[in-house]
Amino acid sequence: MLSVTGLRAAYGPVQVLFDVDFDVAAGSVTTLIGANGAGKTTIMKSVAGLVSATGGTIRFEGRDITRTASHDRVDAGLCLIPEGRLVFPGMTVEQNLRLGAIAPRARAGHSGMLQEVFRRFPRLEERRAQQAGLMSGGEQQMLALGRGLMARPRLILMDEPTLGLAPVMVKQVFETIEELRTAGFTILLAEQNARVALELADRAYLLENGRVALSGPGSDLLGSPEVRRAYLGM
Length: 234
Known about the structure:
The chain is an alpha/beta fold and 234 residues long.
């Protein structure tokens, strides 16, 4: 579904990504792991069109989208759920969700999708009239996930969805990711909780200093001595 080849990206004169290659198969969970500053978020923003690639190619379902505007990528079926959730705190839960369906491809069926989101996340229906800024961090993450689903995505980009959450909410987030895969969604996940992310991943990529240092099935990376020593504390 997604093929990234030779991706390079920079912030001004500082190059962050160096010839990054990776693929995401339809219906899979593909995980990016690595330390802070390794380039995970920059990859996500590059795929979403929020950071311009300085080199390489990004193909989505066979189409070159390297220079495509970010809003057109959303309408093609790409959806980024950003690090830090970034909900609109002064708006209600329902207003946040409805904004997720702003792309043309999502507008027509937004009422039905809203009910689907409430089915997946009953807490959001309970809080539909509450201001998003008054919710807990875990509830806001559920809202960010729900808002992403409102866009009717074909590929969901999740950037550090468990960052700063309590363990019980971390467990719920990973359970939700598993449920979404079972429902047929394709997910690219950037995550620092390497153990659980690799257990969940069909394929995984280890990033170090803006480069892919290791790749393979999630189970292979989970058993890698290098990964176990550097990222699993073993």
